[in-house]
Description:
CATH superfamily of the largest domain: Type I PLP-dependent aspartate aminotransferase-like (Major domain)
Bound molecules: pyridoxal-5'-phosphate
Order of helices and strands: HHEHEHEHEHEEEEEHHHEEEHEHEH
Number of domains: 2
Structural class: alpha/beta
Amino acid sequence: MTERKIPVMIPMLGEEEAQAAAEAVRSGWVAQGPRVAEFERRFASLAGAEHGVAVSSCTTALHLALVLLEVGPGDEVIVPSLSFIATANAVRYVGATPVFADVELATGNLTAETIDAVRTPRTRAVIAVHQGGVPFDTEALRSATTSWGVALVEDAACAAGSTAYGRPVGAGATVAAWSFHPRKVITTGEGGMLTVDDRDWAVRLRRLREHGMNVSAADRHASAQPVLEAYLETAYNYRMTDIQAAVGLVQLDRLAGLVAQRRELAARYQELLAGIDGLVPVRDPAYGQTNFQSFWVLLDSFPVGRDEVLSELAAAGVSARRGIMAAHLEPAYADVTPPPLPATERLTRDSLILPLHHALTEDDQDHVVSVLRKLASS
Ligand SMILES: *Cc1c(COP(=O)(O)O)cnc(C)c1O
């Protein structure tokens, strides 16, 4: 018997990406340059936004979003504890205080109610996450935060290709942050993006990612005349490289196809799992569609505990993962006393993420489901 190995995720990288990266290297322009500019234009258009500002990661994108909004010491920023830890960390980078809010069980997302429950006069902003690609209710959260006079930063790290109210999740966002880490649906190795509609904000973000310079290094080098740059504020080096953007441009061509394929595989998982008691697979919310960046399953009166399910899957060659982490349970946040977070704790304790990627076959899926079916009747 050949040993089966089913990874939880594999990035879809082909010869086209390798060629594009090689061309960037051969061009001699490897730092932020024309390919980054093109990647920004094309990504912004796919995300439903006017401007894209590429950066080194979604973590640095979130940091810059808070700098842009002038959030700082004394301010509170509401975040879901149920998220990759970078969401909460970004708040601490600017010296503000992260305040954890609970999520709803079905989507894993913040709601206007869970935010309102922890809101204080010091709340300056909310970072809402499209959890594992599942869109939060953009209309509800945007209108609630607007009515409270609180800024809404959208952590769309996992959500390229997800939609809400018939539009890409980035459409209509004040500021959204995206990731191109290989664990997401499209990748540039490491990489991130900010999208905004406001032109002045795009200009400021471009400056913040590049040492506060009033003219980009790329524009300076492209000019026939000497250009003397000025440094207008203390800022950062959060640039993306043209090698990464070259890969990203190819990945953009794949995005729609990858999402369509993930949605088909997810629908097949849902069908197969429907016959097993005690498992609740993630689904589209009524107002939108997920890209299924993460296909998670919540154990609900399942006879076997989550960690044992993970071990049994691993023993059968299936690499699954625990569900989304909860920052408030990590040592880095031991000094924070959160309000009760029952749905967050339930999801992080009782859910797991099943393999889903472009190379997953129906046979692989049947194998994954057969392990779960056996455990269900144990
Ligand atoms: C992956 C992820 C991040 C961090 O993205 P990087 O590009 O790796 O910095 C932030 N927020 C969420 C919700 C994520 O899933």
